[in-house]
């Protein structure tokens, strides 16, 4: 597949500088690119690398002014988003043929759209609904009364427990479990009595779950992941958590039960969030933070216990200065006593 830089600029909604007839056959990293490939440079330092490389075209920010002799420049307001579009154009996902593999087990009450692809070793339970162009890659267990919306893909060995509802264009990567029992017990008569978890899980449209994510079903109502939210590998989400739209949750985060998280919130890696909290919209929680209180809209927090990021950074600087302060104090004490 080849496209002219003029065609690429038109598809990306950018402005072109240079020969419009230059042909592009693929995309590449600035250092590795060769003739016939396009790369991107969000900042001036990256532009210098791209300029020295072999790429025939460079995506740059619309405010970029430096010339690129012998190369085409496509100016965009969002360079990284444009590059993501190009990757989709030049490297589309391989089409999967519709049909049900002979080794799959499909309950007679299940409704599987004719355009869906059910891979080897899949098990589909009673009253499951699988929509158009859904792909189950293989080894997937979809338990009773689940529903899966159109264009959703489950990678190998991803599992949906019963009554899980998955929206459109959702991606669930290998080893992820949706709808396992919430961690609910009551101490009774010298032992931990299990509290039945009878709720479900709802994944709204355009959610993506990384590998080995665990999302517990609700105790009574549903655990819910909002539209467009992206969850990295190895994240644990407990029962009755509600996560808003278009959030980013990075790996090894753990969110305890019944916590509510607003829209467009970013949670960095290895964050721990206690239960029954309310985290607002557009909050940023820095890596390895421990959240033990509610956080209002728009705040940036850091540390354990999490607090305003600037305040915690001042504390870290103070801790770094502490050894010198102790030496000075001991010296003053020695002088006072001598």
| CATH top level class name of the largest domain | Mainly Beta
CATH architecture of the largest domain: 3 Solenoid
The CATH superfamily of the largest domain is Hexapeptide repeat proteins
Main sheet record: 12 strands, mixed
CATH topology of the largest domain: UDP N-Acetylglucosamine Acyltransferase, domain 1
Structural class, please? alpha/beta
Largest sheet, spatial ordering of strands: 8-11-14-17-20-25-28-31-34-37-39-40
Poorly predicted sequence stretches spanning 5 or more consecutive residues? none
Description:
The longest helix has 29 residues, at 309-337. The chain folds into two domains: 3-90, 3-Layer(aba) Sandwich (Udp-n-acetylmuramoylalanyl-d-glutamate--2,6- Diaminopimelate Ligase, Chain: A, domain 1); 99-309, Hexapeptide repeat proteins (UDP N-Acetylglucosamine Acyltransferase, domain 1). The protein is built from four helices and 40 strands. The strands form six sheets. The protein has a twelve-stranded mixed β-sheet, covered by helices on one side. It is flat and about 80 Å long. It is α/β, with parallel strands linked by helices.
Quick tags:
single chain; 338 residues; alpha/beta; Udp-n-acetylmuramoylalanyl-d-glutamate--2,6- Diaminopimelate Ligase, Chain: A, domain 1; UDP N-Acetylglucosamine Acyltransferase, domain 1; 10-stranded parallel beta sheet; 4 helices
């Amino acid at each position: 597949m080849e496209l002219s830089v003029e065609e690429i600029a038109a598809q990306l909604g950018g402005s072109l500088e240079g020969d419009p007839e230059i042909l592009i056959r693929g995309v590449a990293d600035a250092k590795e690119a060769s003739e016939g490939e396009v790369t991107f440079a969000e900042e001036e330092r990256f532009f210098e690398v791209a300029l020295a490389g072999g790429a025939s075209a460079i995506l740059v920010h619309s405010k970029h002014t430096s010339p690129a002799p012998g190369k085409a420049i496509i100016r965009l307001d969002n360079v990284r988003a444009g590059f993501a579009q190009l990757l989709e154009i030049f490297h589309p996902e391989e089409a999967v043929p519709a049909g049900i593999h002979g080794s799959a087990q499909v309950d007679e009450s299940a409704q599987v759209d004719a355009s869906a692809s059910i891979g080897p070793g899949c098990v589909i339970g009673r009253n499951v609904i699988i929509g158009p162009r859904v792909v189950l890659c293989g080894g997937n267990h979809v338990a009773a009364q689940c529903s899966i919306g159109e264009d959703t893909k489950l990678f190998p060995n991803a599992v949906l427990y019963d009554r899980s509802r998955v929206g459109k264009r959702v991606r669930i990567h290998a080893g992820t479990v949706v709808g396992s029992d919430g961690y609910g017990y009551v101490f009774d008569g010298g032992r931990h009595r299990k509290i039945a978890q009878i709720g479900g899980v709802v994944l709204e449209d355009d959610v993506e779950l990384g590998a080995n994510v665990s999302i517990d079903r609700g105790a009574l109502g549903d655990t819910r992941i909002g539209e467009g939210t992206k969850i990295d590998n190895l994240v644990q989400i407990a029962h009755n958590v509600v996560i808003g739209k278009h959030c980013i949750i990075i790996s090894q985060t753990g969110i305890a039960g019944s916590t509510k998280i607003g829209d467009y919130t970013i949670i960095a890696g290895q964050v721990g969030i206690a239960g029954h909290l309310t985290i607002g919209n557009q909050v940023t929680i820095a890596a390895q933070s421990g959240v033990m209180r509610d956080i209002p809209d728009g705040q940036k927090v850091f540390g354990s216990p999490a607090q305003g990021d600037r305040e915690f950074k001042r504390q870290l600087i103070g801790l770094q200065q502490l050894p010198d302060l102790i030496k000075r104090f001991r010296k003053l004490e020695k002088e006072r006593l001598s």
